[in-house]
Amino acid sequence: MLMEGFGTLLWLITLVVLGLAVFAFVDAAIRREDAYRAADKQTKQFWLILLGLAVVVNLVQIPGLGMLLMLVGLIASIVYIVDVRPALKQVAGGGRGGRRGGGSSSDGPYGPFNGR
């Protein structure tokens, strides 16, 4: 009974790690190539290969090195999500609706600047 519960826990962890890898891969695929250069990160191709391998390793359980490769893929996914993705969003002017509050480019720190 204990081993069955442990197996279920490992399956859930594997599913979460796979979800993170797929999310990171899809997000890396939809970002523009020039944003990677502007953010001074590795190339888009580098991240697609690394994150694609992370997805494949999670889908195909390799005996022996499987857990180590899964851990490497998890680290790559986390690095992309917490470091590269925010830098790409900042360079591309992304985020939720661009500027906070939906203001225009003529807004100053205390409200609209009309030039008067």
TrEMBL record:
Pfam families in the record: DUF2516
Compositional bias of kind Gly residues: 92-105
Ranges that cross the membrane: 6-26, 46-62
UniProt keywords, alphabetically: Membrane, Transmembrane, Transmembrane helix
Name by which UniProt lists this protein: DUF2516 family protein
Region (Disordered): 91-116
Species in which this protein is naturally found: Streptomyces albiaxialis
InterPro entries, A to Z: DUF2516
Keyword Nucleotide-binding: no
